[in-house]
Task: inverse folding
């Protein structure tokens, strides 16, 4: 089955700096890669996703890049703010036209310091 | 904006007891999922459900677990005889038919004593 690895497990940045979180996946058939932000005790919230027919996607301060050959994808947050502090999870799935099982990474605790 | 809802927010039960966790998916969604997250760990897939049938289940989803869509709005997860290791946050999620974006509910924290 699919296996997703995520690094780093913790990341501390100064406000205004950029943050990069990296994930690798094992199943070359995976074609959908979402990123979720989870604040303490809250639900995972989708912040951005990318499909395998695209190499990069950007939404304001957040961007995701995908390298299908190397089977890795990354989340980039620019101009970080204290409210970006949370746990970020990457995930991978194989969308077949029906439902899809998400396989999550182990999470990155991002702390944005003032 | 419509959201997935879950009840209860917190359930405390004794080992060996049955629990039912309830979810109301987004109304036009047809695929439903349960995930669990043990404290401090990653989110793990349990089961997906479509057209009143299980589509896929993980190795965690053994005979002690079952899912049901008892009516047009609710989606339930039943654990027949809870174990200490079932203590976790259980998230329901839903997606549109053929879609890939899953929307998560707020979760039910299950504590087994």
Result:
């Amino acid at each position: 089955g699919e296996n997703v690895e995520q690094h780093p497990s913790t990341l501390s940045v100064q406000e205004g700096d950029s943050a990069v979180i990296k994930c690798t996946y094992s199943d070359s058939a995976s074609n959908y890669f979402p990123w979720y932000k989870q604040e303490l005790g809250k639900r995972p919230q989708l912040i951005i996703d990318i499909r395998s027919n695209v190499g990069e996607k950007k939404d304001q301060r957040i961007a995701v890049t995908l390298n299908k050959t190397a089977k890795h994808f990354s989340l980039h947050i620019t101009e970080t703010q204290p409210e970006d502090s949370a746990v970020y999870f990457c995930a991978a799935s194989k969308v077949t036209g029906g439902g899809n099982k998400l396989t999550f990474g182990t999470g990155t605790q991002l702390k944005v310091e003032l | 904006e419509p959201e997935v809802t879950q009840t209860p927010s917190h359930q405390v039960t004794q080992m060996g007891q049955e629990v039912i966790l309830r979810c109301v998916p987004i109304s036009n969604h047809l695929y439903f999922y349960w995930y669990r997250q043990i404290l401090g760990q990653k989110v793990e897939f349990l089961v997906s459900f479509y057209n009143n049938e299980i589509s896929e289940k993980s190795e965690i989803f053994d005979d002690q677990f079952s899912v049901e869509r008892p009516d047009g709005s609710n989606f339930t997860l039943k654990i027949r005889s809870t174990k200490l290791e079932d203590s976790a946050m259980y998230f329901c999620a839903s997606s549109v038919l053929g879609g890939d974006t899953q929307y998560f509910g707020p979760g039910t924290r299950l504590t087994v004593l």
User: Anything to note?
Assistant: The radius of gyration of chain B is 13 Å. DSSP finds no helices and eleven strands in chain B.
